[in-house]
Design brief:
Chains A, B: Pfam families: Kinase-PPPase. Chains A, B: Keywords: Kinase, Nucleotide-binding, Serine/threonine-protein kinase, Transferase. Chains A, B: InterPro entries: Kinase-pyrophosphorylase, PPDK_reg. Two copies of one chain form a homodimer. Chain A is an alpha/beta fold and about 375 residues long. Chain A folds into two domains: about 15-185, Rossmann fold (3-Layer(aba) Sandwich), CATH 3.40.50; about 205-365, 3-Layer(aba) Sandwich (Rossmann fold). Chain A has helices at about 30-45, 55-65, 90-100, 105-110, 125-140, 150-165, 175-185, 205-220, 240-250, 285-300, 315-330, 350-365, and strands spanning about 80-85, 115-120, 145, 170, 230-235, 255-260, 280, 335, 375. Chain A has a four-stranded parallel sheet, with helices on both faces. A four-stranded parallel sheet of chain A has the order 6-5-7-8. In chain A, strand 3 (about 145), helix 6 (about 150-165) and strand 4 (about 170) form a beta-alpha-beta unit. In chain A, helix 5 packs parallel to helix 6, helix 8 (about 205-220) runs antiparallel to helix 9 (about 240-250) and helix 9 (about 240-250) packs across helix 12. The first copy, chain A, is globular and about 70 Å long. The relative contact order of chain A is 0.08. At the A-B interface, helix 1, helix 3, helix 4, strand 2 and helix 5 of A face helix 1, helix 3, helix 4, strand 2 and helix 5 of B.
Amino acid sequence: MDSRQGHPEPDSESPPVAASSPRSPKLKASSKLNRWSMARALRSGVKIIDRPINAPHRQATTEESDRKTSAVDGDDVAAGKSIYLVSDGTGWTAEHSVNAALGQFEDRLVNRGCSVNTHLFSWVEDEEKLLEIINQAAKQKAMCFYTLANPSMSKSAKEACDQLGVLSVDILGPIIEGIASHLGVSPSGLTRGAPGRVKTLNDAYFKRIEAIEFTIKQDDGTLPENLGKADIILVGVSRTGKTPLSTYIAQKGYKVANVPFVMGVEPPKTLFEVEPRKVFALTIQLVVLQAIRRTRAKTLGVDTEGENRYSGFDLVRKELDFASKIYEKNPGWAVIGNNNNSYVTNKAIEETAAVILRLYHDSSDSSTSVPCISKRF
Amino acid sequence: MDSRQGHPEPDSESPPVAASSPRSPKLKASSKLNRWSMARALRSGVKIIDRPINAPHRQATTEESDRKTSAVDGDDVAAGKSIYLVSDGTGWTAEHSVNAALGQFEDRLVNRGCSVNTHLFSWVEDEEKLLEIINQAAKQKAMCFYTLANPSMSKSAKEACDQLGVLSVDILGPIIEGIASHLGVSPSGLTRGAPGRVKTLNDAYFKRIEAIEFTIKQDDGTLPENLGKADIILVGVSRTGKTPLSTYIAQKGYKVANVPFVMGVEPPKTLFEVEPRKVFALTIQLVVLQAIRRTRAKTLGVDTEGENRYSGFDLVRKELDFASKIYEKNPGWAVIGNNNNSYVTNKAIEETAAVILRLYHDSSDSSTSVPCISKRF
């Protein structure tokens, strides 16, 4: 989902926004409203027949064949559909939200070979640059998501998109409005880069840095004497995803240690002295682990023939059995992956992290009827 | 911003949702609409006088003083206002978006001591649990953000919130609708945990794992012979944030190496053999670095007296000078922090990462008029 690709070619002859008229006169407000009502129908469960992807755009390109067209003009099947993400800050909110929403179309994207290109524009803090980007979106027949803290910028974005027939969605606006209404406080309207924003070098910042550094130092079973200082300890055989999971969870401010379970090697004594609720035992389906290890061995160029090799069926099975037996002796540990809830198997890092953190908070305070992760700002 | 706190006490006598009537009869649709129009007015730049935070809620609690109230009922100044985040997946999209939006209220939250409590409910995949949570939100006078892929679940959430007078915002719905409309394809409506979702063990997954593991192995200047294999190399003196930045960027699928610049120690030769556009030189204001190092020294308990100590003004200045001289000799490196754009100084990890990645993509392909980060899905 995160393979990078080059930028599309710009149209060097693009007219300035102020002087430009919409390149797609067919995309008027009424047509846009139709598209929106169709989308609403889709969401409410009405099934529609998928229209051929890109067809209208290909037609438009043909109509314009007498004009100079560059790679950014229109879409073709190879280039895919474009989505613009425009932010006056880092752009990570737009990227994160749109990535999550794209998960709703993965069958189309992954299995049917249709592609979507996202273009993330960050630190867009002046109107001129904003309009240049929206103008380019119009030419590329892209849609536009934006997160703009400054109300006049988000108003400009909406107006320019409407005028140029660019389908647009304000991601942050409704959330800010909701919170403003709930708190009865005006939002600051300040972008992340604005001098008036509160400085980030606070206790939480230092705590997070400390968590990340702790986690890196503890990786792969190093410094077992420090296990008691960890918030969360991950255990499991090689290739159950301990390292990526540890660093992901550390970014959220938790000190994570991970301890590899290696066939026939006794885990460190300190592991059995920590509170069991802090220990998360990762497990995984035999065939999946074998496939992962085969890929890993290929990368390292180390796998040898024979049944005792790293990705060999027999060794993998024995190692999983070895780990299972230790898990059984420690019923206070949460086993992530058993009972057909194979959380580690085929799950992305974020998903396993979410499962672990919910269990962690649940066990540290189970006073709510539905477990949740609570934070104070 | 990420200090954790315990869960509020549940009201064990809470009636089931189906039988319950709104606990706050004043919060009817009309009043909710008023709050919304106020929020819109706020966003459009109209200044309103902030009403005393929590005042209406305190009043409500007084009115109900003959009833059993627990910590979740109503708000008080110490407990702060509550925001519920409800997701049928990990909940990270809701958390990320709401955290970003809360940045618009940080003056109120940080400087005036008013607090907001967020409660993240993940993997809410059945209606019963959903209604239980919304019922609890109503009792706690919380507002509710939700990301629910299943259209019938998101419809239920909206209806239950409206019925119980809970202010609610659908975060993912408008984004999914926008993309569906743009692509002309129906969303799957499948939650992350649904069996029909495409498996995540694809090339991008392995690439990301590899990036994270590479980055951890290269941390703090280890294995300089591998610098050529890195996508991005961060250099800088101690405490400029190389390690947290490296792991954050690695999560996005880039192999990152970092090389510390230590006073009087020659950096590895291989650093000067890599493409300069891959090297990002971190710098920081003298006083800020000194403050960070003082905190660090306190944590480690290592700082000694005298001018040559780790956080001493003289050593810090000399180290920054030492680094600057190397930067000057390598004009192809992007210096992050100079020219009053002190990106590292007082910036959160995400912000510096966004600056670096934009420059990285800009320099790897500068064919668009406005630089952006492009990806293909």
